[in-house]
Amino acid sequence: xxxxxxxxxxxxxxxxxxxxxxxxxxxxxxxxxxxxxxxxxxxxxxxxxxxxxxxxxxxxxxxxxxxxxxxxxxxxxxxxxxxxxxxxxxxxxxxxxxxxxxxxxxxxxxxxxxxxxxxxxxxxxxxxxxxxxxxxxxxxxxxxxxxxxxxxxxxxxxxxxxxxxxxxxxxxxxxxxxxxxxxxxxxxxxxxxxxxxxxxxxxxxxxxxxxxxxxxxxxxxxxxxxxxxxxxxxxxxxxxxxxxxxxxxxxxxxxxxxxxxxxxxxxxxxx
Amino acid sequence: xxxxxxxxxxxxxxxxxxxxxxxxxxxxxxxxxxxxxxxxxxxxxxxxxxxxxxxxxxxxxxxxxxxxxxxxxxxxxxxxxxxxxxxxxxxxxxxxxxxxxxxxxxxxxxxxxxxxxxxxxxxxxxxxxxxxxxxxxxxxxxxxxxxxxxxxxxxxxxxxxxxxxxxxxxxxxxxxxxxxxxxxxxxxxxxxxxxxxxxxxxxxxxxxxxxxxxxxxxxxxxxxxxxxxxxxxxxxxxxxxxxxxxxxxxxxxxxxxxxxxxxxxxxxxxxxxxxxxxxxxxxxxxxxxxxxxxxxxxxxxxxxxxxxxxxxxxxxxxxxxxxxxxxxxxxxxxxxxxxxxxxxxxxxxxxxxxxxxxxxxxxxxxxxxxxxxxxxxx
Lengths: 271, 378
Prior knowledge:
The complex is a heterodimer. Chain A has helices at residues 2-14, 53-61, 95-110, 124-135, 177-180, 204-210, 214-231, 250-255, 259-268; strands at 18-22, 25-34, 41-46, 68-74, 117-122, 140-146, 184-190, 239-243. Chain A is α/β, with parallel strands linked by helices. Chain A has one domain: Alpha/Beta hydrolase fold, catalytic domain (Rossmann fold). Chain B is of the alpha/beta class. Chain B has two domains: 2-156, no CATH class; 162-377, Rossmann fold (3-Layer(aba) Sandwich), CATH 3.40.50. Chain B is 31% helix and 25% strand. Chain B has ten helices and 18 strands. Chain B has helices spanning 2-19, 188-201, 218-226, 247-261, 280-287, 289-294, 305-318, 333-342, 350-353, 358-377; strands at 21-25, 34-35, 49-53, 62-69, 75-77, 83-85, 91-96, 99-100, 105-108, 116-120, 124-131, 139-148, 176-181, 206-210, 230-233, 268-276, 297-301, 322-326. In chain B, helix 2 (188-201) runs parallel beside helix 3 (218-226), helix 2 (188-201) packs across helix 10 (358-377) and helix 7 (305-318) packs parallel to helix 8 (333-342). The chains are: A alpha/beta, B alpha/beta. Chain A binds chain B through residues 22-28, 78-79, 90, 92-94, 96-98, 100-102, 104, 107-108, 171-172, and chain B through 9-10, 12-13, 17, 20, 22-29, 48-50, 52-53, 66, 113, 115, 142-144, 150.
């Protein structure tokens, strides 16, 4: 039944989801979906290492409000080698630059303001989106972090990407806690996402600092962030939602955990 | 077809990785950045990529920078001349270049894209080596990457030489009046502007050029405000500055600029040579036989009487017809007396140069000089 529904929707969406190459760099592609209505909500959807950008945007399209523009960049393995960590110096191009270039192109071609965005990321994409929000908080409204393998902890005594202490990874990023704590974050993780599978970062350092699996790491990051809000007296809170019966699988996170619908509704709220 | 495209992409990425150079999309729309005067002839639509990594910049390369600490220069001159205030984190579009300015900084193009300085408000990124005690240290900037075209070829000012366009050259013998000086701030630009004003008020069509210096609009705007028909500088020929440029290239630059300005409408061309006559590039340029032969006459500006006499003697010894001494020394009555006792070269005070009839007088002197030069050549 579910498969039938998916096929039907995919067929319908095929006619409206567009795929473009970035005009300044044909190695970079992105999908987008836009209605003819006035756009008030820019949603950027970031894939994990399976690069299933098309699937994510298709699933989100089912919940898309008319004033929403969906954008799903494709960070290829060959080009954006370090995209989860924003593309550190000498580790491939800057992934945040790639997203900004896509936003600029869409902004100029469709006369849409893209200076404030909502971010959704699954797995490696979830790593990207929270780091992007830390680096560029003034351009981000809400961030949905789904099943991140591990996190950048909001600590200045740990080196990036584990924490916020920078060496020479970036020339133009300063992490400013008082700014990135103003962004709204929600964390989602599958109830059964506890396997130490081959794509999980199993370094001793991450295990020690963040936990043994995605579930533990999501809880630890959420607690750490909430402690920061408290310490800085900022009225904000990261909520963690456990998706029943869900493993580390985007399809299941949506079909069983209804994550695309939940995130879409949250992004549409004007809180 | 798809496979071939894919393999080309992979090859391109591989080459970049091997050279440790990344060609990536621009993270900002350049029209939201503060663009410097030096880049005014560049079509920024050509800038499609950011070239980063282990790339060695060259003078004239366009670079996107972030302001990290405001020091001497708190404003950046835009192509239209507006001096826009800068803030930390502002993104600016400038050019790499060398600078020699005894009253400010001596600086060179750095070896890599590491943090450097904004050494001129006109928009020059450089590594400051020396600074004058009169000024604060240079404003600090962080290059984010060189601006490249779609294929990652770095944009350089030399690709935007607007003097390349063919002009309708005049067949008439247009006098070329050179203005040089004893040092920076000797009054060269003020003198040039006054001479222009005098000529224009007397009905002449004047064109002006600044042949050497560091990219900045101040002098050009001054010439334009004085009433020139055309004003150009070395940035129009694709150079961000002339420090450390070979003499051969500077002579070629001079010829190109003169050719550009020699239009049928032009009656006289005034050319300012920046810095003092002892500065390396300026000295070599003035000693060049091509420049001596091409110049009709010279007006020399000096900061004080002794430098006035030294420069007057030196320039005459090279074969220049020095029509007058002007600049800062001409505004000091005692300095004027000292000079007048030691040389027959007249002093041109600012007030005199803009007075009615001075343009005609000077034009007659230039015509006579021109005739004399032609007789000698015959």
